[in-house]
Amino acid sequence: MTVITTIDDLKQIYKRRVPKMFYDYAETGSWTEQTFLENSADFQELYFRQKIAVNMEGRSTETTMIGHPVSMPVALAPVGLTGMQCADGEIKAARAAESFGVPFTLSTMSICSIEDVAEHTHKPFWFQVYTLKDDDFMRRLMERAKAANCSALVITVDLQMLGQRHKDLKNGLSAPPKLTLKSVADMITRVGWGLEMLGTKRRFFGNIVGHAKGVSDASSLSSWTAEAFDQSLDWKRIGQLIEMWGGKVILKGILDAADAVKAAELGADAIVVSNHGGRQLDGASSSIRMLSHIVDTVGHKTEVLFDSGIRSGQDVLKAIALGAKGTMIGRAYTYGLGANGEQGVTDALKIIHKELDTTMGLCGRTLIRDIDQDILIVPDGFHRK
Prior knowledge:
The chain is α/β, with parallel strands linked by helices. It has 16 helices and 12 strands.
C-alpha cells in the first residue's frame, strides 16, 4: 500500500486509475507546453531563508480571502470536467473543501450542476463563468448561482477562444467519452473508475445541457460550445458582467499589470494572477514571475490571488511571500480526487497544509499574515514586468 505524503504520490495513483483522456486533460498545456512546465519549475528558483531560535508555538495558517475566513490561503480552482475524473467529482471536491475550511469554485463546464453541489453542501461556494455571448443564458446562469447562495462570481477573462491543446485533440476529449476502439480499450483497464461512473446519472455538462438554448444532449453541446465564447470581449463587456452579477467578483486570468489596473478600476473584489495553468497562451511567462509586479501595482486597490503551478504547501508560501493574499489549486486537488474521491481531495489539502505550516515555522514565522518577501532569497531578474 502506498504511503501518501506528497501531491506527487496522489498523482501516480490518479494516473493509474483514470482514463488517459481525462488524465491528459488535467496534465497538459497548450502548444509546446513551455508555460505549463515553467509554471511549476520557476518556483524552484525561489529559496527560503531558514531561521533558528524562534518560538514556533501557536502557529496559524488562518486568514481571509475576499473577506471569507479560511483555514489556509488556498481555494479549489474552477476545473472543468471534474465529474469525469471521479463520479460526482464536483460534489466530492466541494464537500472536502467545506470540511477543510477552504473555498470551492464550481466551473460552468462542470459535470455536476450548481444545484447538485448546493444540494450536497451546507456552506456557500464560489461559481465560475466564462465570457459568453448569450446574455439570456448568462443571466439565468447567474440567477441559478444566486439561488444556490454562491458567495462570489469568478469571471474567467483569458478564454475568449481555446488555446491549441494537442493532447485533448488527439484523445478526442469529450464528456461522456466517445466510444471508440481506443477509448474503450483504455477504459476497460480502469475498472474502479468505470464502476463508479456507471453508478451515477451525472455524465454530461450539468450547467449547460437542458439550460442553454438548443442544447438538449451531448451531440448538440459541441456546436454550442464552438459558438458560445465571446471573441469580441472588451473591458466594457467585463463591466457589464460584473454589473449583471451585483455581488462579489473575482477576475481570473490576469498576467499583465496594465490589465490588473483596469480590473481594479472596474471594482473587482479580487484578481487572480493566472495563465490558465499554461493551457492558453503558450510562451507566456509563468504566473509566479509576474506576481510581485502586479501586487506592487494594484495590491493597494484590490485583493491579489495567485493561480498556476502550485504543487505543494511550499509553493503556496512562496506565492504569499511575494504578495498574494491567497492562492488557487487545480491540478493538485484533481490528482487527489482522481486517486481517491473525496478522501483524496482531503488528503491533498492535508499535504499542502502540513507543508505550508512546517515551512512557515522553519522560516521563523508563526502567522500567515506576517509572511513577506523577507523569508525568500529571490534571484536577480526573477520578477518580470
